[in-house]
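haha ok so turns out i had the wrong file open the whole time. this is the CORRECT one, sorry everyone. sequence first:
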Amino acid sequence: MKRVFIATVIFIGLVRLTQATQADDVTITIASQTPGVTPFISQLTLTTDDTSAFKTIQFTVAPKAGSVTRPLSGTYSTEYLTSRGYLNASTGEIFLPVYGLYDDYDNTVTLTYRFLDGSSKQDSTVITTATFSDPCGYKNPTVLQARTDNTKLSYDFIMVDNACSFFSPAVIDTDGALRWVGPGNYYQIVSTFFDNAFYQADGSALVRFELDGTITQLHDYSDIGVTFLHHNIDRGKYGLILDTDTDTQYESVNVEIDALGNVLKIWNMGDILSAAMIAGGDDPTQFVHPSPIDWFHNNGVAYNRADDSLVISSRENFLICIDYETSAIKWILGDPTKHWHDFPSLAQYAITLPPGSLPQIGQHSPSFTYDQRILVMDNGFHSLYQMPPGENRTYTSPRKYAVDVVARTATEIWNYENNQAIFSSICSSAYEDGPLNYLVDYAIIGGLGTDDGLAQILGLDGSGERVFYYQYPALGCGKAYRSLPLHLENTRFPTVGPQVLNLSTRALISNGEQVLIGGFIIGGEEDKTVALRVLGPSLAHGGIAGAAQDPSLSLYDSSGTEIATNDDWESDPREMELSVNGLAPTDPSEAATVQTLAPGSYTVIANAKDNTSGVGLVEIYDLSTESSSRLANISSRGVIGTGDNVLIGGFIVGDVSNATVIIRALGPSLAPSLSGETAVNPQLSVFDSNGAILASNDNWAEDLNATDIERNGLAPSDPAEAAIVLHPPAGAYTAVVTDPGGPSGIGLLEVYDLD
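then structure:
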């Protein structure tokens, strides 16, 4: 019997090795290349004998020799290609745009074809491009600091808002190479990147540029009284927020639109401030003025999902925070020597700064950082219209503030003053990409009226190292009004928004109440495919003592019905999908399954067989990121001990834009539903992929962002429990829960996706 069993296993293995796949059967030929509307874009025509077999097609542009930047890459689903008319099933032709090429260069491009059965194969080609005549001079910067060989910079591509040619906007990489320009005939500094496309202002109208160079006219907002789009286009709650001039207001009206350009909401700061001043007993005509007076000078907006608010930058006056829905003023941060502070109705909202913290002056580019702080470019330039004009400085600096809404204080926690040697009085920007990775843009060094002006763009990594520093001749703000970090290393079509894509939890796996439990919620209306894994033996190779030897998993729906179970992963009916996605466990005794699930709540339980116990790892992976449904909440319950037995949760944030998550560590509040010991005083710390600590918390109510936690209905019921609000960019993160208050007890780690 033993010989028969072994022979059967060998036979199955041979069948698996020799079974033909779609990658083997489908023929694909790169038939032709066609130059795009600029040298940075090319169109490949592919021919195939079976268009129905494809799942995705990915192109990858190799960086130049010696570069440490990541390759630029785009992945198209067949549904997307079909919707754009780029896939013709009747002729077998596929029209594949390739963008981000170097001009005047032999670009090596790799194509990866992925098929519906999970198989894949690659091909490659060389695309030779023409020279781009660069009227802005981006191709020839003065190199103040060449890109170092540091590979920890969180971004490699940069969008530069400009009006120095009819090719606005531009994309450069951190080597200083030009990689994309607008398809032409648009000349205005107002642009942004959203939904895998560039949005460009054209007077009172808005157009959309696809990365393949296609232009779509979205909307002319003159139909709602808009006369001009100016300054920034920023991310809003649902889409984008435009800074607008109207028939009656100059640079003081914001409009939120969706990805198609439809108007969603309007905020008139003249009306909002007038109402507040009248309610406070002041005369608004002494502060608020009709067009064309530049009394407010709005130049940017930041939306904060954690408390559903807008922070609006008024260059003349302050940063003002209003409620997204009601427009009620929440706080004002600014120089108290300016005119706005003379009115008690406005001064009552003022946030104070302690000694050692400077208020921002004439600021630009407000944004929220990963740790819920506010980052602005403090230009250091006083008011031009409002009198008194406030302070004036001789230098410009990015500044980051921690705002305590309850105490009504703001503390400056970071700046980059660059020896106070640079003064850029207007425009300019500073953004944080990965934690402590910054992109700084000085738009007009020397200030207004400077002859032979200069613009500078520099990058800083998490250790504070200057990774690159480039300089360009500039006239006004037209060369580099602001610069945004872009992530073009793996763009997916259709767009995948910021979301939590997986959770992994490591803790003790035992039996009874000490099993390791992972919970997740699929929100939305479409089914979602997930991979579930429970690892044990393979952890020993990573130095984990006492790893679980033979774990199993069971999956339950919200009614408690078991819908799947697995002991050894190779027995799962969809085990090939685990291998294709790089998720096959390394030990055959570990458990895994792939399931396509309807929206709802689910629980996966990891058991230790034969009444044993050991450290195990439960993982939940989102395999269908193109689905409109998403993992809205993922959690894990396990024993919080000491050493290797602490509760460790890992989560991955997808796409390029900051998600908004609340992370909780519960213990005492679990006691009523459990008979065993619960964690007494859980403490929570969150680390990035480099092991740097991003945030920590012991008692949630003492956290600076406690009001945001309460507002979202996620305040723990026990003051000894922990919670943190973060805006993490795409990447992998680890949450560690310890309990110094007790020997060991059961705790719950939760990650909520507010997006």
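Residues 1-18 have pLDDT under 50 and may be disordered.
again sry for the mixup
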